[in-house]
Design brief:
single chain, 305 residues, alpha/beta, ten-stranded parallel beta sheet, two-stranded antiparallel ribbon, 12 strands, 19% strand
């Protein structure tokens, strides 16, 4: 049964996992018929390098970053890496980029988080120019890029930005191919994300944007136990300001209130609802214990859709 929602698998944090294990995970997602496979850039493997390798070994499936932070890479470097992964995968990459968080940018990298919207606007301008034309001439307030990049075999790839606030969603609608959300509930998707990004795209005479929704998913008969597990696993997202703002908008006390959890009929209905409110894709983060009946039921239900 189809919900009209493209279902992808979130590969999760790569720290502590070997390259072979991650490639095998992506291969399983392909073999089971999923539309896409996504990796984040956290503190493990480099996501773009790994997706390029996966693209050489695993056919057909769309490969995406969800997401690579911008501040740690000059936009010319980001474009070069993305075009290389695009060439390696035969044109199957979707580049998802995001700001990360002030505590990371300033505390870990020692960089200024001043005016993040301006930063993303300038960053996106540079990356888009290089991806689509191979060259750039841009001198902004905080970023400068003048030069060209030639990657044989690379074609332009879709660029999505992690956008939650109104201005960032407007930027996503006018200057990118869509957005990737994380830990954002259905009411917020319906009443905030979709209207803002689609309205901006329409006003700019651009195609309808992708709305890629990343959420934890678990098929279970013991909803209370799995919500408690989610509350523990995803607790950090309840305090990071950008996610906290989306949870507050949703009326959610913590991340466990927005996870997709329930039996097969309930989860299927929740996915159908996401499609009905304008989500185009789901990145499913399977959070039940590996090897557990819940994990197997979750994968089976997602595979059936």
């Amino acid at each position: 049964m189809s919900t009209g929602l493209k279902i992808g698998i979130f590969g999760g944090d790569t720290a502590g996992r070997t390259v072979d294990e991650i490639v095998a995970d992506a291969a399983a997602a392909h073999d089971e018929g999923f539309a896409s496979y996504w990796l984040p850039q956290i503190l493990g493997h480099d996501a773009l390098a790994l997706l390029g390798l996966i693209g050489r070994e695993v056919p057909d499936i769309e490969l995406g970053t969800a997401v690579v932070p911008t501040y740690a890479r000059h936009p010319m470097t980001m474009a070069q890496q993305a075009l290389t992964a695009q060439a390696m995968s035969g044109g199957r990459l979707t580049l998802g980029i995001g700001l990360s968080h002030q505590v990371v940018v300033e505390g870990m990298w020692g960089m200024s988080y001043d005016k993040p919207l301006r930063h993303m606007r300038e960053y996106l301008t540079i990356v888009s120019s290089l991806v689509h034309t191979g060259k750039v001439e841009f001198n902004g307030e905080t970023l400068t890029a003048n030069g060209s990049i030639t990657v044989a075999g690379a074609t332009p790839m879709p660029i999505l930005i992690a956008a939650l606030g109104p201005k960032m969603l407007e930027l996503a609608g006018t200057s990118a191919d869509g957005t990737i959300t994380w830990m954002t509930g259905p009411a917020t998707i319906a009443n905030h994300v979709v209207p803002a990004i689609t309205g901006a795209a329409t006003a700019a005479s651009r195609p309808s944007p992708r709305v890629v929704v990343g959420l934890p998913v678990c098929v279970t008969d013991d909803v209370e136990t799995q919500r408690a597990r989610a509350a523990k696993i995803y607790s950090m997202y309840g305090v990071l300001p950008s996610y906290r703002a989306m949870l507050d908008r949703e009326g959610a006390a913590d991340p466990s209130d927005v996870v997709i959890v329930g039996d097969e009929d309930s989860v299927r209905a929740q996915l159908e609802h996401l499609a009905s409110i304008g989500a185009t894709d789901l990145i499913a983060a399977e959070f039940a214990k590996p090897g557990s009946p819940e994990r197997e039921r979750t994968r089976a239900l997602l595979r059936s859709i």
